[in-house]
Design brief:
The structure holds two protein chains of two kinds. Chain A has one domain. Chain A is about 70% helix and about 0% strand. Chain A has helices at about 5-40, 50-70, 80-100, 110-130, 160-180, 180-190, 195-200, 205-225, 240-250, 255-275, 280-295; strands at about 145-150, 155. A two-stranded antiparallel sheet of chain A has the order 1-2. By secondary structure, chain B is of the alpha/beta class. Chain B has two domains: about 1-185 and about 325-400, Response regulator (Rossmann fold), CATH 3.40.50.2300; about 185-320 and about 410-420, Response regulator (Rossmann fold), CATH 3.40.50. Chain B is about 45% helix and about 15% strand. In chain B, a hairpin with a 5-residue loop joins strand 14 and strand 15 (about 415-420). The chains are: A mainly alpha, B alpha/beta. At the A-B interface, helix 1, helix 5, helix 9, helix 10 and helix 11 of A face helix 5, strand 7, helix 10, helix 11 and helix 12 of B. Chain B: InterPro entries: ABC_urea-bd_UrtA, Leu_Ile_Val-bd, Peripla_BP_I, TAT_signal. Chain B: This is Urea transport system substrate-binding protein. Chain A: It is found in: Cell membrane. Chain A: Its main location: membrane.
């Protein structure tokens, strides 16, 4: 494999592969975080998670067009506005969906699975009707594209750094919210014992709605960020949903820390294997490993003891 | 073989001078072109149109949906589901062709009516709808399918009920059905000319093959690899990714390390967007042509999703680009935009879909009948001088003779044609040793 390369080149390969793995890790965390909150904290299997992400991507698309047409001077910073709006839009839609559909199905997890899958189809068709069946191209500000060349082989991708920074910010934010803030305590209380939480005066329905909206909002931000690396089309959400569930289930559904650990494991092994094998084989091996580990440890890498 | 075959065809087309001429009339009405032949055509048209329509009993002996004034055809594409992205353009092109043929007097004096069915990106649905079109609607021909999987699904239906399918997509070859006319290029036509060009013009010596993981990219890369290695050049890597894969950083690192002269890319669908965006983000500037990127899977349609600035500088090898500079194409692009909107782009497959209805019309008129068997018999040798891509002719193996061109991607999402083969490429769906 390494025949004919100098030590310098081999060092560069490892540096670049490590970096590629870190980007993939950030992407996985970003897409799984919203689902981890919804699935982990509420037990709702949200099959429409990908479509909430794509809502964020379309908001970004609309924003980029708006800025390009009306305030081109500020085009360089539109991405931040777009991410904020994506959070609001996806969060608002999430709250609406929770109110109209999810809350009626809390005790029927398999029915939420079907209902949210139906929702994902409805959303896909809605995007298709509004934006057309074709993918749309989101124009990015120039500073987000390209890379710094450290050496002639090693390039550091700017959008990779951006995704990493964003992921770090959101993860820390969610961590603080969940473990330091009053809202997080309420969420955890409701998750651990809904009846008792209600008995001590927590409005559990309100907490549910906010939690669901938060998860969807984060999905929206993720979708917005992924316009830098992926496609924006009515069905593009489907590209992410399998990986997202994989990360959350593998990590142990109730644990945010587990989600992060699992994203790290899967991304590093996937990116390393992709280098040595073909992409399809890497995927097969990753899935096999995950299946194997889940057979030995059905609750996932990390799990909390929860009273049902 | 073809010269002897085509001569009678040419003559038979000349018997109907009003058709191409009235096409020109339409173009003029559309504000596109004016031609000196116009007054002649206009004086011929009223007396000829519909007057010579032969008896229905004579042109339809097998119970197809043909009346004294109409003939029914089918359009079978996905207008919902993941493939809707790609297939929409084909549907639009087919409707445009049908519209134009009707405006020019129809086929054998009969107006074409179409029945449109939705394959819904689901292969069994394609088969079911194909059966419905052939058995219930009794259509005289079907324009449709896009992916190889959908074509393979409808193939037994068309062979069982003896229908005629005009299939527009460039594909992997290895197929030849008496019930299908393939209006797109098969793999060798697209691949050989492209590789020969980069070797000759750009001095390429090493190639990195990359594709989505299914039959078309795998077969195409097999053909490419053989062609490359036969010339003593090297393939330094070959990689496949599952459909919908969105992370290409690892393979981009590999490419950087192997330093090939050419990245030969057959990535499709949503992966395409991720691939080109990440390639650019990783500092591979395709305008430097070091490495140079050659693709056979990105048409103008796909560039809309990828973004012109992300693929600028790449080369594509296919038979049609929207920017082709000839009178047929200028009129076609103008008519297409007039019908479907100014922001439309037209890719290779869309143009191939447009050819289907015209080839069918020419075959029906040569046969003097709508009967499937007679149309099939008449098809080899049919030529189209009005094709937007220039000139095409149906080979005995039901594929088209066509030129292959190299396009250079520009930031505005269009290709600039930098090369075309001097001769028509012969379709060869069963290349020796590639199966």
């Amino acid at each position: 494999m390494f025949d004919g390369y100098t030590m310098g080149e081999i060092g560069a390969i490892f540096a670049m592969q490590g970096f590629a793995g870190l980007i993939l890790f950030s992407v996985f965390v970003l897409m799984a975080l919203g689902l981890a909150i919804i699935f982990g904290q509420m037990g709702v299997i949200n099959m429409a998670h990908g479509e909430f992400m794509i809502l964020g991507a379309y908001v970004t698309y609309l924003c980029s067009n708006f800025f390009a047409d009306y305030i081109p001077a500020l085009f360089g910073i539109y991405f931040f506005v777009a991410m904020f709006l994506a959070f609001l839009a996806a969060g608002a839609l999430g709250a609406l969906v929770e109110w109209a559909m999810i809350r009626h199905l809390y005790r029927r997890p398999l029915d939420t699975l079907l209902a949210t899958w139906g929702l994902s189809l409805i959303l896909q068709q809605t995007y298709r009707s509004i934006f057309g069946a074709r993918e749309v191209g989101v124009t990015l500000p120039d500073w987000l594209m390209g890379s710094f060349a450290l050496t002639d082989i090693i390039d550091v991708q700017i959008n990779g750094l951006f995704v990493m920074g964003l992921t770090l910010l959101i993860t820390v934010g969610v961590g603080l919210l969940m473990f330091k803030a009053r809202f997080g305590r309420q969420v955890r209380a409701v998750m651990q014992n809904r009846m008792m939480a209600g008995a001590v005066g927590i409005d559990t329905e309100k907490v549910d709605r906010k939690t669901f909206a938060l998860g969807c909002g984060i999905a929206g931000v993720a979708g917005s960020a992924f316009t830098m690396i992926g496609s924006t089309g009515p069905t593009a959400g489907q590209l992410y949903i399998v990986d997202t569930f994989l990360v959350v289930v593998f990590g142990g559904a109730q644990s945010l820390l587990g989600t992060i650990a699992s994203a790290f494991t899967i991304s590093q092994s996937q990116s390393a294997m992709e280098f040595f094998l073909s992409g399809s084989m890497a995927k097969v091996l990753t899935l096999l490993t995950v299946v194997g580990i889940l057979m030995l440890r059905p609750q996932g890498l990390f799990s909390l003891k929860v009273r049902r | 073989m073809t010269d002897t075959n085509t001569r009678p065809v040419r003559r038979s087309l000349q018997v109907h001078p009003d058709q191409p001429a009235s096409m020109e009339r339409r173009k003029l009405l559309g504000g596109a072109l004016g031609l000196a032949a116009l007054p002649l055509a206009a004086s011929l048209l009223p007396s000829r149109a519909f007057a010579q329509a032969p008896l229905t009993s004579a042109v339809n002996t097998t119970g197809l949906a043909v009346t004294d004034s109409t003939v029914k055809v089918g359009i079978l594409h996905s207008i919902t589901g993941t493939m809707a992205i790609s297939e929409t353009g084909s549907v639009q092109a087919e409707k445009l062709a049908i519209d134009q043929i009707n405006a020019a007097g129809g086929v054998l004096g009969r107006k074409i009516e179409f029945v449109q069915e939705d394959g819904a990106s689901d292969w069994p649905t394609f088969a079911e709808k194909a059966r419905k079109l052939l058995v219930e609607d009794k259509v005289a021909s079907v324009f449709g399918c896009w992916t190889s999987a959908s074509r393979k699904a409808v193939l037994p239906v068309f062979e069982q009920y003896n229908g005629m399918l005009y299939y527009p997509t460039f594909y992997e070859g290895l197929e030849q059905s008496p019930n299908v006319i393939y209006t797109g290029q098969e793999a060798t036509q697209q691949i050989l000319a492209g590789i020969d060009w980069v070797v000759k013009e750009k001095g390429a010596k090493s190639f990195y093959l990359i594709g989505s993981d299914y039959i078309w990219p795998r077969t195409s890369n097999k053909i490419a690899r053989r062609h490359i290695e036969k010339q003593g050049l090297s393939v330094v890597g070959e990689d496949y990714f599952p459909l919908g894969h969105t992370q290409f950083n690892s393979v981009i690192n590999k490419i950087k390390l192997k330093k090939p002269d050419v990245i030969y890319a057959i990535v499709v669908g949503g992966s395409n967007v991720a691939f080109y965006k990440q390639l650019k983000a990783a500092g591979i500037d395709m305008t430097q042509e070091h490495p140079l990127l050659l693709t056979i899977s990105v048409t103008e349609d796909e560039i809309r999703g990828i973004g012109g600035e992300n693929i600028e500088g790449a080369y594509a090898a296919m038979k049609y680009f929207q920017s082709l500079d000839n009178e047929n194409n200028k009129a076609f692009v103008a008519n297409f935009k007039e019908m479907w909107g100014d922001d439309m782009v037209i890719g290779d497959v869309t143009q191939a879909a447009y050819l289907g209805a015209w080839l069918w019309k020419a075959a029906v008129e040569k046969a003097g009948s709508f009967d499937i068997d007679k149309v099939r018999e008449a098809s080899p040798g049919i030529e189209l001088t009005t094709a937007p891509e220039g000139y095409v002719r149906i080979h005995e193996n039901h594929h088209l003779w066509s030129k292959t061109r190299i396009g250079h991607a520009k930031a505005d999402g269009q290709y600039e044609v930098v090369y075309e083969t001097a001769d028509l490429m012969e379709p060869n769906p069963f290349p020796e040793g590639y199966q």
